[in-house]
Known about the structure:
By secondary structure, this protein is an alpha/beta fold. It folds into two domains: 3-110 and 181-243, P-loop containing nucleotide triphosphate hydrolases (Rossmann fold), CATH 3.40.50; 246-283, no CATH class. It contains twelve helices and ten strands. The chain has helices at 3-18, 67-74, 96-101, 118-128, 133-146, 151-156, 164-176, 194-209, 221-227, 245-251, 257-265, 267-279, and strands at residues 29-38, 41-51, 56-60, 82-87, 90-91, 103-106, 182-186, 213-217, 230-235, 238-243. A six-stranded mixed beta sheet has the order 6-7-8-3-9-10, with helices on both faces.
Amino acid sequence: MSERVMDTMNQSAQDIARVGENAGKAPSIIVDALTKRFGGQVAVDRLSFTVPAGQIVGFLGPNGAGKSTTLKMLTGMLQPNGGSAKVCGYDLLSDTIEVKRHIGFVPESGAVFESLTGLEYLEMVAALYGIPSAAARERIQQFIVFFDLSFQTLTDKLLGAYSKGMRRKVVITSALLHNPPVVFFDEPLDGLDANAAVGFKALIQTLAREGKTIIYSSHILDVVERVCDRVIIIDKGRLLLDGAPEALVAEHNSGTLEHLFTQLTGGAELERRAADFAKTFRS
């Protein structure tokens, strides 16, 4: 990636972060014994943690650990069976609409209205949040520059014809358009090319410096280790570890966050089973 492109992306990230930066008091997230059951299965089991403003938190766990379920509860998409949570001072159950006004969410699915153009979709999202048309266009233009999209692409192609990476860029843009103080990302790099991924990492670090709270759920642990101030690791819906990546790695003498993660969540057993499976092709 050229130095000029990096400078442009960094400047765009700063411009995006400054949009409405004085729009409200810096937020925090408070989760207290949050629980979710599906029938007789406990997906999230009395999970508790607090996140101050301006922090990037890596939210980690193996498949089925309860990460996406937790994010869906914190964004008002699922109702918990027990416990409580506050986002930006608003109670998740009694002030659900206010919670949704103050958050952005990039789900793993990246679902969009495929019958709309990219611009139509973003303008619809802006209208839902009450952003005036002129301000919405200005913010959309900033994201177009940041993600190296062409205005023609946004206006001439339906979202159904977009590549996975292009859709992801539109979904990230839609999550940040209303300048939310808290943003939840579920596998945000999925589908992004290398340049866009580098730019995205710069963006979330800039957003955090401007006081926004970032919850970053991902299986790409080397990225989490580089960009997150703190990691929360859960398994079977329960909290396993919570702390700064470098401190946790040092405390457990693990070398890397990835190695620590496999130690905690049974990855070493999976490696042994993979080795045993590979033997079947040599016999």
